[in-house]
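Run log // design_07
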C-alpha cells in the first residue's frame, strides 16, 4: 500500500515523449488539472521540442530520459511522477529508472512487450512503495462508457456476443515508431489496438477461458513480423463471446460496437471524438469536450424498433483525477497494472499460435 503524498503542492510531473501520446493526450490533460504541475517534457526532436516549449512554456524541455534522470540525481530538478509516452520497447528501463528514484509512474499502452517483464516491473514498484499505473484511456471513451452503462443496467438482457472494432484507412503507415517496432518490441496492431480492445472486453465480461486469433502482415508494410490486420475471438468464463477486429488498412470500416443480448442489441458507428478534439487544441475543460452529437449516438433495441441512446460524456481527464486522488488521498489507482498484464497474457497467447 502506497502512502499518499503529504505536501499540498501540485504533483510535479515529467512527460517522456512528445509524439501523439505526450502531445495529444498527457500534456494537455495534465496541464488542465490544477493538482498536477507539468515540470518537464522530454523529447530529442528539435521540432517537437520547439512545439512543446510553445505549448507548455512553464515546462523544462529535456533532450533525453538519461538527461532527465541526470538532472534529478544532480538535484537540478525535482519530480514526483513520470509519464512514459515513449515506445514500449523502452518502457521497462525508463520505468525502472524512475522507480529506483522513488518516483510514481504512468506507462502508456502498450504497457511492456512481455508478461514476464511486466511482472518484474510490478514487483519493483511494490518493493519501492511507488504507484505504477497504465494509461488505458479508452475505458473513458464516450461509446464505451455508454455501452458499460447498458450492459450493467441490463438493457440488453443477457449479452451473448460482443463485437468491437478499431479500423481505419492508413496505407501510408503511422509515421512513428509503430511502423518500425517488431513484435518483440510490442509492435504490431495486436499490441497497439489490442491493448484497448482486449482490455475493454475484459472490463465488460471478465476473465477469458479460451482465445484464438488471426494475424495478417501485408506485403510492403510495417516491420518484419508485425501484423497490420488482426482478428481475436475470446470466450469469457461467463459464456460471452467477444469478437475483436483491428485493422489499419480498412478502406471501409465496420461498426465500432455491435452487441447482441437476449432482449436487445446495441450498435454504434464511429470512433470517440476526444483524441481529435485534443489534437485540434480543444481544452479538456471546455464545455463541449467529450460530448457526442446526437447523430453519433448508438442505437438500442430490435430491428424495426431502434432507439438512439444518448452518449455518456467522454472523460479522459478522469484518469488523472483518479491518479491525483490516489497520490494525494490514498485512493485506488485509476488502472490496476495487473489488468494490463491480463490483457498482455491474451495477446501473448495469440502470438504464440502463429
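design_07 sequence
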Amino acid at each position: 500500500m502506497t502512502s499518499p503524498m503529504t505536501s499540498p503542492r501540485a504533483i510535479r510531473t515529467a512527460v517522456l515523449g512528445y509524439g501523439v501520446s505526450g502531445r495529444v493526450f498527457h500534456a494537455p490533460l495534465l496541464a488542465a488539472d490544477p493538482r498536477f504541475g507539468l515540470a518537464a517534457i522530454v523529447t530529442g526532436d528539435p521540432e517537437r521540442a520547439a512545439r512543446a516549449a510553445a505549448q507548455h512554456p512553464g515546462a523544462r524541455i529535456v533532450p533525453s530520459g538519461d538527461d532527465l534522470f541526470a538532472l534529478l540525481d544532480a538535484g537540478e530538478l525535482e519530480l514526483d511522477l513520470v509519464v512514459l509516452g515513449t515506445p514500449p520497447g523502452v518502457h521497462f528501463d525508463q520505468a525502472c529508472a524512475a522507480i529506483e528514484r522513488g518516483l510514481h509512474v504512468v506507462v502508456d499502452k502498450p504497457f511492456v512487450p512481455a508478461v514476464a517483464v511486466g511482472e518484474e516491473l510490478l514487483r519493483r514498484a511494490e518493493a519501492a512503495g511507488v504507484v505504477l499505473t497504465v494509461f488505458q484511456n479508452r475505458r473513458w471513451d464516450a461509446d464505451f462508457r455508454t455501452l458499460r452503462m447498458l450492459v450493467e443496467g441490463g438493457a440488453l438482457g443477457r449479452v451473448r456476443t460482443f463485437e468491437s472494432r478499431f479500423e481505419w484507412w492508413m496505407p501510408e503507415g503511422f509515421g512513428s515508431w509503430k511502423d518500425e517496432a517488431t513484435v518483440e518490441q510490442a509492435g504490431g496492431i495486436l499490441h497497439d489496438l489490442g491493448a484497448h480492445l482486449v482490455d475493454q472486453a475484459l472490463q465488460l465480461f471478465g476473465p477469458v477461458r479460451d482465445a484464438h486469433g488471426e494475424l495478417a502482415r501485408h506485403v510492403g508494410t510495417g516491420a518484419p513480423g508485425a501484423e497490420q490486420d488482426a482478428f481475436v475471438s475470446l470466450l469469457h468464463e461467463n459464456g460471452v463471446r467477444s469478437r475483436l477486429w483491428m485493422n489499419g488498412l480498412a478502406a471501409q470500416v465496420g461498426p465500432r460496437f455491435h452487441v447482441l443480448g437476449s432482449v436487445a442489441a446495441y450498435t454504434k458507428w464511429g470512433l470517440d471524438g476526444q483524441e481529435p478534439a485534443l489534437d485540434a487544441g480543444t481544452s479538456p475543460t471546455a464545455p463541449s469536450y467529450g460530448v457526442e452529437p446526437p447523430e453519433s449516438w448508438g442505437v438500442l433495441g430490435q430491428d424495426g424498433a431502434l432507439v438512439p441512446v444518448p452518449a455518456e460524456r467522454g472523460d479522459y481527464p478522469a484518469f488523472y483525477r483518479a491518479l491525483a486522488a490516489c497520490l494525494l488521498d490514498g485512493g485506488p489507482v485509476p488502472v490496476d497494472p495487473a489488468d494490463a498484464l491480463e490483457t498482455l497474457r491474451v495477446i501473448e497467447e495469440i502470438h504464440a499460435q502463429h
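Residues 337-352 form the longest helix (16 residues).
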